[in-house]
Amino acid sequence: MLKLMIANDNGNSEQDMFINNVPVGQPNVYAHIHRLPNMDEVNVEYVLNDIHNNLIVSVEGQLYYVGNKALKSGSRCRSIEVGVDNNKVTNHIVYVNTLAHIAGEAVAETHRQGKPLDHEIQCEVDMATAIPVSYYSKSTGAAFAQRFMGKEHLVSIFVGPMEVSVRIRFDFVKVIPEGVTAAHAFLNHPEFFEAYNDFHEDMITTDYMGKARILHVAIGEGTTEFPLTYNGIEFNPDFIEGTNNGNGHAIDRIFIPFKQDVGLLKFTRQDFSNILKDGDHRYHDRAMDFMLPSLEEEAEDILAMAKHIICKANNEIDVVAVYGGGSILMRPMIEKRLQDFCSTGNKGIKVLYIEASKAVMLEAVGLNDFVHSKLFEQLKEMSTAKTA
Fold it and tell me: Which of 10, 78, 111, 139 maximizes the CB count within 10 A of its CB?
């Protein structure tokens, strides 16, 4: 039986995971299909060596393309909606895509071990994941965990003409608030402070972050979370603000006009996000022209909330850490103004704006630290003792 340790960060746009310490980043989309394509001529070895970009799966009797495979298929894709109705606890995309990537990795790992794929693969999973801190409670966390732990899951992975069955049993799933995820990363990875320390004398270290009061500004596609953590990974329940702001809202406002302007038909929010990331894309400059005014509105709301929380905390904050996929394009709109606010009146608050190359995977890195930690082991033992 395979044993898989999963860190699972479910974003509106991307699903960032670590599976046995191997990073996996994929668009958080699927396409529900009604029949399999002809795959007689598919290169099986190629698919097995790049399984997460080639996921065709069956979950509970339904067929799906997942992640990049869905985007490139030309099929109609479904993505996680932004806004107040976004509930990842009950979202079917989160459920299907998580099972698909786990099953896909189980098939690939079995192949790497030189074992045949003509039998059912069984794997046991421990998983750490997170939900927005403004939505988090013990009951919502338990409901999300139970969705995976409540039963065994049988998933089929289609590799060319082969159908490989994977039976997944979740031994333990722990759901924590977003923000606390990044706090785990700050305790273990000094590389997140390198860019800051290159330009500041008041250097940030992992030891310092273990004692600091940190206001997190985690900017995503659909939400921005503002938790306040201290003493490492503890969070203040009086500061669990979250707003419906992010790149996804900016994209939604200009998505249809942009499609009409450039004459696109089959085009998703993920496609638009990819154009924004790719400076060489033929539509990149045009997309930025559409995007910037809408993005500035989102940045203004996020900056206003950050200032509000700093004042609410009576300036008793040591570091404001800004990260997440949505933080990258907003950096010119937020960083300097936030630094000016945090330095006036002798506040002495550091602004740690995580650079683009690390901003997206930060929370997944923290979740991976958590799932491999002694704390996770202790929580699992306590959970096992309660159910014994």
Answer: 10
Domains 2-176 and 180-249+270-364 share a fold: yes
Q: How far apart are CA 243 and CA 222, in angstroms?
A: 9
Q: Which CATH class is domain 180-249+270-364?
A: alpha beta
231: alpha, beta or left? (left if phi > 0; alpha if psi -120 to 50): left
- Give the C-alpha separation, 13 to 327, whole Å: 13
Domain 2-176 falls under CATH 3.30.300.20: no
Confidence of residue 13 (pLDDT cuts 50, 70, 90): confident
Torsion of CA 100, 88, 192, 201, to 10 degrees: 170
Task: Spell out the domain ranges in the chain.
Answer: 2-176, 180-249+270-364
Range list of H helices, the chain: 44-49, 68-73, 92-112, 138-149, 180-188, 194-199, 206-209, 247-262, 269-277, 284-312, 327-343, 356-359, 362-371, 374-387
Q: How confident is the model at residue 388 (pLDDT cuts 50, 70, 90)?
A: low
**Tens digit of each residue's pLDDT (9 = 90 or more) over 317-345:** 999 999 998 999 999 999 999 999 999 87
Residue 283 has pLDDT above 90, yes or no: yes
